[in-house]
């Protein structure tokens, strides 16, 4: 058959012959596999990773934790003492919300009074039944030495209540009355137990919730709030301007140093150091695509997280005074990012710097806050809050260290 010529050939080339479907044109290049292969969403990658690792770590607890992490997170309302705190507290209580910190402090006082703390100590065993049906602590229990700041107040709805707080409104001076945050994020601040006139360092301060909670204690002689990201320090300034009056803001210094260098910049300076390190942010990773560390382009960054966390914790230990206290925290369930980092830091502090670091017992937090949070009993060091559908806070890991 002879090849078509003239106008017929042109029509065939452009695929415009009536009755015939268009002829596909031959591409001059091949599409790359990266653009044609289906892209797996980062949250799905994160969930697959967690299913592999956390099912071994948490075993039978993992299905319930997994379900909670895939559901809407629960929040607490951190009361701002620099606004109309009493009026705000009354309004929150009308919503059936309760201040879980005050409740825990009341419980601790009851146990201490029952054990004779502050009065005549009983010489007989303190074990027995308490007035509320619980077991009284023994004389060596950390509960008898528990101290919670009476100034920090955070309201939460009861277990199983999925009500949400409305956004806070500014008062006549433009100060917001409360700050919404994962209530479990308050536990590292409470563990730090800031005392009057303490010099405090918040090494990785952004987005600013824990910084704000530290200021609510009213005990910081000076607070250094640092974050390596200049854009994130803008968030810190926004929090300070929205919640803190000018005279108190003057006691806060906001910096943007690489936290890993802090021990060299101002070593041995602070009474209390909070090291809330970057982590896999497990709940965010399984829920959000944006800024997800499980994105394939961030694989190397994710793999290097434990090293970064170790360097930051070491900087925090070196920044603390002798007898100073350091609280390390993450919002991850990962043992590699939690206990393993703490263990390695203790070893390095001893072998390379000649600094002895002791782990403080925080087991009393499980008892004090058992009505609000679900704790994992299998931590070798520190405490871990597990998300649960009836108390959907966390995850939050925290461990307290004391520098000798």
Low-confidence stretches: 10-15, 122-136
**Structure class:** alpha/beta
**Shape annotation:** globular
Count the strands?
Answer: 13
Distance between the termini: 96 Å
Mean pLDDT: 87
Element-level helix/strand string: HHHHEHEHEEHEHEHHEHEHHHEHEHEEE
Quick one: biggest sheet?
Answer: 9 strands, mixed
Give the helix tally.
16
Helix share, percent = 25-40%
Beta-strand content estimate: 15-25%
Rg of Cα set:
27 Å
What is shown here, in short?
The protein has 404 residues and is an alpha/beta fold. The chain has helices at 7-14, 33-36, 42-57, 62-69, 85-94, 100-114, 187-192, 209-216, 230-243, 246-249, 262-265, 282-287, 299-303, 305-319, 339-353, 364-368; strands at residues 76-79, 98-99, 154-156, 178-181, 198-202, 220-226, 252-255, 270-276, 320-330, 357-359, 374-375, 383-386, 396-403.
Describe this structure in words.
There is one protein chain. This protein is of the alpha/beta class and 404 residues long. The protein is 35% helix and 16% strand. The chain contains 16 helices and 13 strands. It has helices at 7-14, 33-36, 42-57, 62-69, 85-94, 100-114, 187-192, 209-216, 230-243, 246-249, 262-265, 282-287, 299-303, 305-319, 339-353, 364-368; strands at 76-79, 98-99, 154-156, 178-181, 198-202, 220-226, 252-255, 270-276, 320-330, 357-359, 374-375, 383-386, 396-403. Strands 5, 6, 7, 8, 9, 10, 11, 12 and 13 form a 9-stranded mixed sheet that branches. Strand 11 (374-375) and strand 12 (383-386) form a beta hairpin.
């Amino acid at each position: 058959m002879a090849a078509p010529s003239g106008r017929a050939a042109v029509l065939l080339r452009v695929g415009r012959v009536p009755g015939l479907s268009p002829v596909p044109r031959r591409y001059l290049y091949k599409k790359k596999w990266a653009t044609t292969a289906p892209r797996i969403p980062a949250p799905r990658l994160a969930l697959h990773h967690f299913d592999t690792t956390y099912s071994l770590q948490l075993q039978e607890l993992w299905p319930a934790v997994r379900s909670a992490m895939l559901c809407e997170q629960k929040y607490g309302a951190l009361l701002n003492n620099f606004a109309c705190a009493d009026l705000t507290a009354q309004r929150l209580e009308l919503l059936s919300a309760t201040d879980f910190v005050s409740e825990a402090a009341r419980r601790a006082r009851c146990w201490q009074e029952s054990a004779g703390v502050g009065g005549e100590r009983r010489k007989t065993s303190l074990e027995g039944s308490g007035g509320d049906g619980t077991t009284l602590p023994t004389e060596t229990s950390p509960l008898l030495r528990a101290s919670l700041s009476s100034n920090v107040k955070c309201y939460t709805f009861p277990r199983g209540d999925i009500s949400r707080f409305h956004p806070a409104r500014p008062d006549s001076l433009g100060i917001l009355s409360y700050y919404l945050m994962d209530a479990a994020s308050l536990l590292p601040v409470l563990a730090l137990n800031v005392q009057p006139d303490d010099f405090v360092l918040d090494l990785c301060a952004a987005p600013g919730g824990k910084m704000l909670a530290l200021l609510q204690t009213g005990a910081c002689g000076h607070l250094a709030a640092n974050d390596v990201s200049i854009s994130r320090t803008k968030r810190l300034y926004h929090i300070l301007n929205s919640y803190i009056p000018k005279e108190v803001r003057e006691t806060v210094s906001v910096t943007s140093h690489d936290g890993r260098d802090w021990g060299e910049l101002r070593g041995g300076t602070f009474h209390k150091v909070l090291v809330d390190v970057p982590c896999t942010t497990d709940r965010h990773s399984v829920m959000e695509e944006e800024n997800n560390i499980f994105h394939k382009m961030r694989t190397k960054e994710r793999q290097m997280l434990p090293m970064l966390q170790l360097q930051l914790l070491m900087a925090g230990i070196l920044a603390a005074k002798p007898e100073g206290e350091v609280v390390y925290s993450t919002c991850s369930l990962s043992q590699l990012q939690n206990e393993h980092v703490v263990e390695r830091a203790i070893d390095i502090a001893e072998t390379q710097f000649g600094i002895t670091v002791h782990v403080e017992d925080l087991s009393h937090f499980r008892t004090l806050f058992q009505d609000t949070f679900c704790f994992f009993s299998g931590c070798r060091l520190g405490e871990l809050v597990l998300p649960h559908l009836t108390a959907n806070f966390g995850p939050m890991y925290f461990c307290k260290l004391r520098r000798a």
